[in-house]
C-alpha cells in the first residue's frame, strides 16, 4: 500500500519543490491558475522520469519547463534562461545537501536510501523544505538589491563581467550536474561531499559578487541623490531669491501705488480706481502671493532634502499649468524612514500625479502632510482620466501608460514599503476621477 502512495506522492513532492523555487525567485507576479498548471506539468513529467529512473532527463526537462513557463509569462528570454538555470542549481543544491545529510551525517548508504521507501520519501520532503528555504534567501537578496538601486539595469550594463560570470557560472554548474548524474554510477561520502562543496562554492562566490555589486549600486545611488538634492536646494534658494526680488520691487512701487490710488480718489474716478485695482494692482499682487504661498507652507518641513524635492516638483507642475494645493500645518522635523527612501517615494508620487493631471481638462494636484501623535501621513491626490487602469494593474512591474519598460516607479515604491519597513503603510484609492496615494509612517519609539 505504501508503495502505491509513494509512487503518487514522491513525484508530487519533487514537482512542488520545482514550483516553489520558481515562484520564489521569479520577480514577476504569478497567477494562481498558471502556478497550478505549471505544477501539474511538472508532476506528470516527474512521474514519467521517475518511473524510468532517468535523472539526467529530469535535469534537462526541469530547466526547459521552467524556462518555457517563465518565457510565456514575461516574454523575456534572457531573464527566463537565467532564472531557469538558477532554479535548477537551487534544486540540485538542496538535493546535494540532503544527500550529504543522509550519507555523511545519518550514515545511510545510497542503496539504503533508494531501497527504503520511507527514507526515500522523507528525503523528498527534506528536499522540498530546503529548496523552499534557499529560494527564499535568494529572493531576499534580490529584493535588497532592487530596493537599493532603481537604476540597476543601467548599472549592470556597465558591469558586464559580473553578468558574464554569473551566467557562465550557472551554465557550467548545470552542465556539471548533468554530467555528474550521468557518469557517476555509485554515490558515496566523497562524491556527495565534493558535489555539495562545488555548488555551495559557486553560490557563495555569486553572493559575494552580488553583495559587492549591491554596495557599488548603493554608493552610486547615494551620490546621484546628493547631486539631485543639491540641484533641488539650489532651485528652492533661487525661488526664495525671486520672491524676495518681487517683494522689494513691490515695496519700491508702494509709494507710486499709493499716489495713483490717491489720484483716483481725489478726482472721484471710482470706475478708473476699480479698473486699476482689478487689472493692475490685484493681478501683480496675486503673482507675488502665489509664489510666496507654497514656500511659506513648505517651511514646516524641516528635512531639507524633502523640502527641496517637493519645491522642485511644484515648480515643475506650475510650468504645465497645473493647479497645486498644498497643506502642512505642523512642523515635520524627522521621519522614521530613510531620507533617500522617502524622497524616492514622494518624488515618484508627485511625478505620477503631474503626468496624470496633464491629461485632464481640470489639472489638479493636492499635497498634504498631516502630523499625528504617533505617525506622519503624506497624501498626494490628482485628477485622472475615467479609463485609469485598476490599482492592481498599476503596481505590476513594467506597467506604464507612458510606453514600454518605463513602469517601474510604483513597483519600486511597493518594494520599499513592503520589504524594508514594518512601520510604513501605503493606501491607494481611485474614485470619481481622483487618484489618491496615502503614505502612513508610524513613529518608531527610541
Give the helix/strand class: alpha+beta
Relative helix content: over 70%
Tell me the distance between the termini: 60 Å
> Counting H and I runs of at least 4 residues, what is the number of helices?
15
Name the beta content range: 5-15%
pLDDT under 50 segments (min length 5)? 398-408
Task: Tell me what you see in this structure.
- The protein has 446 residues and is α+β, with helices and mostly antiparallel strands.
- The protein has a domain of 222 residues.
- Helices cover 72% and strands 9% of the residues.
- It has 15 helices and five strands.
- The chain has a five-stranded mixed sheet with strand order 1-2-3-5-4.
- β4 and β5 form a beta hairpin.
- α4 crosses α9.
- The two termini are 60 Å apart.
- About 2% of the residues have low confidence.
- Keywords: Coiled coil, Membrane, Transmembrane, Transmembrane helix.
- GO terms for molecular function: identical protein binding.
- This is GHKL domain-containing protein.
- It comes from Clostridium aciditolerans.
Amino acid at each position: 500500500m505504501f508503495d502505491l502512495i509513494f509512487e503518487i506522492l514522491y513525484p508530487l513532492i519533487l514537482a512542488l519543490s520545482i514550483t516553489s523555487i520558481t515562484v520564489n525567485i521569479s520577480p514577476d507576479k504569478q497567477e494562481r491558475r498558471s502556478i497550478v498548471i505549471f505544477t501539474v506539468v511538472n508532476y506528470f513529467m516527474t512521474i514519467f522520469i521517475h518511473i524510468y529512473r532517468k535523472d539526467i532527463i529530469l535535469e534537462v526537462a526541469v530547466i526547459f519547463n521552467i524556462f518555457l513557463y517563465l518565457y510565456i509569462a514575461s516574454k523575456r528570454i534572457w531573464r527566463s534562461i537565467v532564472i531557469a538555470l538558477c532554479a535548477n542549481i537551487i534544486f540540485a543544491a538542496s538535493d546535494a545537501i540532503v544527500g550529504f545529510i543522509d550519507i555523511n551525517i545519518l550514515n545511510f548508504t545510497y542503496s539504503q536510501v533508494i531501497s527504503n521507501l520511507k527514507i526515500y520519501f522523507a528525503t523528498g520532503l527534506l528536499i522540498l523544505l530546503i529548496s523552499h528555504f534557499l529560494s527564499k534567501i535568494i529572493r531576499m537578496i534580490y529584493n535588497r538589491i532592487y530596493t537599493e538601486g532603481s537604476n540597476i539595469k543601467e548599472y549592470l550594463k556597465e558591469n558586464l563581467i559580473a553578468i558574464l560570470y554569473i551566467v557562465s557560472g550557472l551554465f557550467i554548474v548545470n552542465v556539471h550536474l548533468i554530467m555528474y548524474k550521468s557518469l557517476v554510477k555509485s554515490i558515496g561520502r566523497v562524491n556527495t561531499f565534493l558535489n555539495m562543496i562545488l555548488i555551495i562554492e559557486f553560490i557563495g562566490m555569486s553572493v559575494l559578487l552580488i553583495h559587492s555589486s549591491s554596495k557599488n549600486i548603493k554608493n552610486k545611488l547615494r551620490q546621484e541623490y546628493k547631486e539631485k538634492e543639491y540641484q533641488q536646494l539650489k532651485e528652492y534658494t533661487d525661488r526664495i531669491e525671486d520672491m524676495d526680488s518681487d517683494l522689494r520691487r513691490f515695496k519700491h512701487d508702494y509709494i507710486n501705488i499709493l499716489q495713483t490710488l490717491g489720484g483716483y480718489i481725489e478726482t472721484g474716478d471710482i470706475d478708473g480706481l476699480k479698473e486699476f485695482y482689478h487689472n493692475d494692482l490685484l493681478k501683480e499682487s496675486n503673482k507675488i502671493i502665489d509664489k510666496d504661498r507654497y514656500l511659506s507652507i513648505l517651511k514646516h518641513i524641516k528635512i531639507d532634502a524633502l523640502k527641496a524635492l517637493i519645491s522642485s516638483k511644484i515648480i515643475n507642475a506650475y510650468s504645465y499649468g497645473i493647479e497645486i494645493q498644498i497643506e502642512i500645518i505642523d512642523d515635520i522635523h524627522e521621519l522614521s524612514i530613510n531620507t533617500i527612501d522617502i524622497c524616492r517615494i514622494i518624488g515618484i508620487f508627485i511625478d505620477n500625479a503631474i503626468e496624470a493631471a496633464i491629461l485632464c481638462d481640470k489639472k489638479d494636484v493636492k499635497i498634504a502632510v498631516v502630523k499625528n501623535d504617533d505617525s506622519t501621513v503624506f497624501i498626494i491626490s490628482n485628477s485622472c482620466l475615467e479609463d485609469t487602469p485598476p490599482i492592481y494593474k498599476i503596481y505590476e512591474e513594467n506597467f506604464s501608460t507612458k510606453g514600454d519598460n518605463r513602469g517601474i516607479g510604483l513597483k519600486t515604491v511597493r518594494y520599499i514599503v513592503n520589504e524594508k519597513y514594518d512601520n510604513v503603510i501605503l493606501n491607494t484609492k481611485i474614485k470619481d476621477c481622483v487618484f489618491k496615494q496615502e503614505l502612513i509612517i508610524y513613529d518608531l519609539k527610541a
